[in-house]
Specification:
Distance between the termini of chain B: 21 Å
Helix content of chain B: 25-40%
Number of helices of chain B: 4
Strand content of chain A: 5-15%
Number of helices of chain A: 11
Strand order of the largest sheet of chain A: 7-6-5-8-9
Number of strands of chain A: 9
Radius of gyration of chain B: 16 Å
Helix content of chain A: 25-40%
Largest sheet of chain B: 5 strands, parallel
Oligomer: heterodimer
Number of strands of chain B: 8
Strand content of chain B: 25-35%
C-alpha cells in the first residue's frame, strides 16, 4: 500500500486508486480535527519547508496547519524578503534547502512546471501547491472530498466549473481528478476565458449559465483573478456578473438544489452573489476544513513512506 | 517446525471471554464507571463481546469505542507500505471513566503504547486498564496487562492467529510458524 508516486505534482494521470486512497485517509484526519487535541505524532521528526513564491493566504495556512497537526517541523519561506529578491536562482534556493536536510517541500510558483523541476534537483518529496496556470492538486482533492462527503460518490456526479477556465489551475486539476473518478464535468464561461479544444479533456462547454443549471448537481465557481487579467477578455466586472454571476434568482429558477463550491477568496457579487455564498447549499466553509484534512492525508501518505 | 497448534477452540474461546468480562466487573466493582475501547480490528470485536457479556451480567450497557492507532505507530518511518488507515470512533466522553483497553494479542507492547498515547489525546480517563485475549510474551516496553485470557509461551518464529466469527467465520486461537509478515 501507498501512493504510486513519491511526489504530488498534479492529478493529470494520477491513478484512481491513488485518489481513492487520499480521499479515504482524509476521513480519518477529519475525525482528528474534531478532537479536543487536534494533533497526532505521525510526522514527528520530519521537516517540511513551505516555499511560496506567489502570494497565498489560505493554501499556505492550510498546509501549515496540516503539517503542524501531524507534528512535523515547519519552515516557511516566501519570496518577498528572501534571497530570491537578491537574484538567487530557484535551483540554488532549492539546493540550499536540500543541504539543510529537509524531508518535504511544498511549493507554489507562478511558473508552470516549477514543482516538476524541483523533483530533479532535490531529494525531498515535492508537493505542488499551485504552479502558474497548470495544476493545483490539493485544491481539487479537497473539492472532490467535499463533493464525496455531500453526495456519497463522485461516479456520475454532474459538476460544472464556472469562470475563467483558461487561467485556472483549480479548473484543470478538478477536470483531471473528476474525470478519473467518473464524474460528468462541464465548464462554463465567456468564450475568451475557455481554452480552445478543452472538449478533448472530455468536458462539455457551455457559454450560458442558465443552460448549465438544470443539468448539474454542483457548481465550482472560480474567482475572477484580477491579477491574471491582462485586460480585454471581458468588458467589465458588472457585465461578467450580469451574464455569468451565480445568483439566487438564477438558482431559484431550477427545481433542484445545486451545491455551491468556491476555492476562495470570493469576489462577492462578481462571480457569486453574497446570498448564494452564505446560502444553505453553499459548502464553501466545509471546503476550508476539508482542505486541512485532505492535506494531512497527502502529507501522511507521502511523508510516512519516504 | 511444528505445524499449527490450537490454543483455544470455540468453546474455550467463549469461556475465556466470559471469564475476562467477569474479572473486569469484579475488579471495578460493577460496570457503572466503565468504558470499553477496542483496538482495531480484532480488539474491536473482542470489545463488543465483552460489553455484551457485561450487559448479560450486570444489565449495564457499557459504552464501547474503536481506536485506530496507525498514526501513533513508531514504525511508520522507513516502512515502505503503510498499514491501512481507519477511523477512530469513540462517541462517548472518556474523561473520568475507567477505560478498559482491549486487544487480541499482547506482544511487544508497542501497539498498547501507541493506543495509550492516542487515548490521552482524546481525553483524560480516570484510569486505563488493559485486557488481552492472549499474552505471548517478548515485551519490548514496560507494559503489563490487567486481564489476560491466556498466557502462551511462544518463540519469535511463531505467530498467534486469533480468528473470530465476525471476520473469519469461527472463534479460535492458533499458534503457528510465521508464514508471512503480519502486524503484531
Amino acid at each position: 500500500m501507498g501512493l504510486s508516486s513519491r511526489h504530488l505534482l498534479g492529478l493529470d494521470g494520477m491513478p484512481k486508486s491513488d485518489i481513492e486512497m487520499i480521499l479515504d485517509a482524509a476521513v480519518s484526519f477529519k475525525e482528528i480535527l474534531g478532537r479536543p487535541i487536534k494533533k497526532v505524532p505521525t510526522l514527528q521528526g520530519k521537516t517540511i519547508v513551505n516555499l511560496f513564491f506567489e502570494n497565498s493566504t489560505r493554501t499556505r495556512i492550510s498546509f501549515e496547519l496540516a503539517e503542524r497537526r501531524l507534528s512535523a517541523d515547519v519552515v516557511n519561506f516566501s519570496a518577498s524578503g528572501s534571497s530570491v529578491s537578491k537574484g538567487e536562482t530557484l535551483k540554488d534556493t532549492a539546493r540550499n534547502i536540500e543541504a539543510m536536510k529537509i524531508d518535504m517541500v511544498v511549493i507554489r510558483h507562478n511558473a508552470a512546471g516549477t514543482p516538476h523541476f524541483l523533483t530533479r534537483v532535490v531529494q525531498a518529496a515535492v508537493l505542488n501547491a499551485g504552479d502558474g496556470c497548470h495544476e493545483h492538486p490539493t485544491q481539487a482533492l479537497l473539492d472532490m472530498y467535499t463533493l464525496k462527503e455531500k453526495f456519497g460518490t463522485l461516479e456520475g456526479l454532474r459538476v460544472c466549473i464556472v469562470g475563467d477556465i483558461s487561467h485556472s489551475r483549480v479548473a484543470r486539476s478538478n477536470i483531471y481528478g473528476l474525470k478519473t473518478m467518473g464524474a460528468k464535468v462541464s465548464v462554463c464561461g465567456p468564450a475568451t476565458l475557455i481554452p480552445k479544444e478543452i472538449e478533448k479533456l472530455g468536458v462539455t462547454v457551455y457559454h450560458r449559465i442558465d443552460d448549465v443549471l438544470p443539468n448539474v448537481d454542483a457548481l465550482n465557481v472560480l474567482r475572477i483573478q484580477m491579477e491574471r487579467q491582462s485586460g480585454g477578455l471581458f468588458p467589465s466586472l458588472r457585465e461578467y456578473h450580469r451574464f455569468f454571476g451565480v445568483t439566487k434568482e438564477r438558482l431559484d429558477r431550477v427545481d433542484h438544489p445545486i451545491t455551491i463550491m468556491h476555492p476562495g477568496p470570493i469576489n462577492r457579487d462578481v462571480e457569486l452573489s453574497a446570498d448564494v455564498a452564505d446560502g444553505p447549499h453553499s459548502v464553501i466553509l466545509d471546503q476550508v476544513l476539508n482542505g486541512v484534512a485532505v492535506r494531512m492525508s497527502v502529507l501522511y501518505l507521502l511523508g510516512a513512506a519516504n | 517446525m511444528n505445524p499449527s497448534r490450537t490454543i483455544l477452540d470455540a468453546p474455550d474461546f467463549i469461556r475465556t471471554v466470559s471469564r475476562l468480562s467477569h474479572e473486569i466487573v469484579e475488579r471495578n466493582r460493577g460496570a457503572a464507571s466503565l468504558g470499553i475501547v477496542g483496538i482495531r480490528t480484532r480488539g474491536d470485536y473482542l470489545a463488543r463481546r465483552i460489553a455484551d457479556a457485561i450487559f448479560q451480567m450486570e444489565n449495564v450497557a457499557v459504552p464501547i469505542g474503536t481506536l485506530d492507532i496507525t498514526l501513533y505507530r513508531d514504525d511508520l518511518r522507513g516502512k515502505l507500505s503503510q498499514p491501512r488507515l481507519n477511523t477512530t470512533n469513540i462517541l462517548y466522553d472518556i474523561a473520568g471513566k475507567d477505560i478498559v483497553l482491549v486487544d487480541d494479542v499482547l506482544f511487544t507492547g508497542r501497539t498498547v503504547r501507541a493506543a495509550l498515547n492516542a487515548l490521552m489525546d482524546i481525553g483524560r480517563p480516570a484510569s486505563i486498564q488493559l485486557a488481552v485475549l492472549v499474552d505471548r510474551g517478548h515485551r519490548e516496553l514496560p507494559i503489563k496487562a490487567d486481564f489476560v485470557g491466556k498466557n502462551v509461551p511462544t518463540s519469535l518464529d511463531e505467530e498467534i492467529k486469533v480468528r473470530m466469527k465476525e471476520a473469519d467465520g469461527e472463534d479460535a486461537v492458533l499458534l503457528q510458524p510465521i508464514q508471512q509478515q503480519s502486524e503484531g
